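Students often ask what a holo structure prediction actually looks like on paper. The answer is less mysterious than it sounds. You provide the chain, you provide the ligand, and the output is a string of discrete structure tokens encoding the 3D arrangement of the protein together with zinc ion.
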Amino acid sequence: MSTLQITGGTVLRPDMTAREADVLADRETGRIVEIGDTAAGEETLDASGCLVVPGLVNPHCHVAMTLLRGYADDKPLDAWLREDIWPVEAALEPGDIEAGTRLGAVELLKNGVTAIGDMYFEMPTVADVLGEAGLRARIGHGIVTVGKDDADARADFEEGLAVARDLDGAADGRIRTALMPHSLTTADADLVEEFVPRARDAGVPLHYHANETREEVEPIVEDHGVRPLEYADDLGMLEDGDFIAHGVHVDRTEIELLADRDVGVAHCPASNMKLASGIAPVQTMLDAGVTVGIGTDGAASNNDLDPFDELRDAAMVGKLGADDAAALAAPEVVRAATEGGAELLGFDAGRIEEGALADLAVVDFEKPHLTPAHDPVSHLAYAVRGSDVEHTVVGGEVVVRNRRVQTLDEAAVRREAEAHAEALIRRAEGN
Ligand SMILES: [Zn+2]
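The corresponding structure tokens follow.
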């Protein structure tokens, strides 16, 4: 057994208590084998002065959109997509997506993220980069059929299905897949009905944006006479293992439907606030038994990929939305950002216990803004920043040590991303 021992830290357990303990991980199985007074490991990671937490899980992202960070701000979703984002995305070349994904991977890992959900394009390239970076991910080709003729629309679905079939299990099983139609209004319903059963046959779940804005809900209600998630259910899009992004404008019936079908929600509070999409009724969802994870969405609508920012936003806006300071309490948001997200993605991670995947973040608590530490869970929800993460471990492999990414060359990644972003915008704007 090849082992990693994380020594001298305080460990956050699934019951949200924290105790001084070492953690021993088996690098062959990628799982935690012992917590407490462990045997010595072949490799050690010093966690003294640190809180060892489950790796943060970001279940909804478009990682390569790091290239569009700060390119277009301060517009509502529909105008932002049509006027700014889609025209630039039409000019994307595979090399851009590779560079943007590398940049996003560096940022995510340094912020303690160990697993992500990613919906984008050129997914074989994305899978290679995420595999090389050492992340765990559930990925899919974002299928958009609006503005496409029948042949192109079908080809997009075929690509989505091929990606879901072919890349599942890549990077020694760290990469899993899903069929990812962009949303209920941007992917053709007839093709959804045709391809969803084929995805089920291939054993892959579905992930899509749903009920993000009012503008997206109204046409579905008008055209079909049912709420969007009832419509999705009629199309066969709500089965155990599927997960949606946003769920901002959901009513009681839809929340019960999600709970009943065991379909989770990737809540993206920063993106929802920035695009003024609305406030998702997260406490109501949690009370109804819906699994909730916390996602960053793409960097263009956030504008960073820091899960601790997101955690805090989820707590703050959750209280505001519920008109209740007790809503989205610290342990609930910490659980959503770890175990909840892992459940959405279908990974046996998000909690530090024997047998679970050894996906961990080691947070340095010896900082002025984390002093005193009356309650580490409170700090995780309200005070910790991504830049406090000292080490990140995925499947027992150290991917960040002393804030240095071990799998990618950060300086080269930044240089490359900058060059690609500049050339992309020049191409898209035609000069
Ligand atoms: Zn999104």
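The mean pLDDT is 97.
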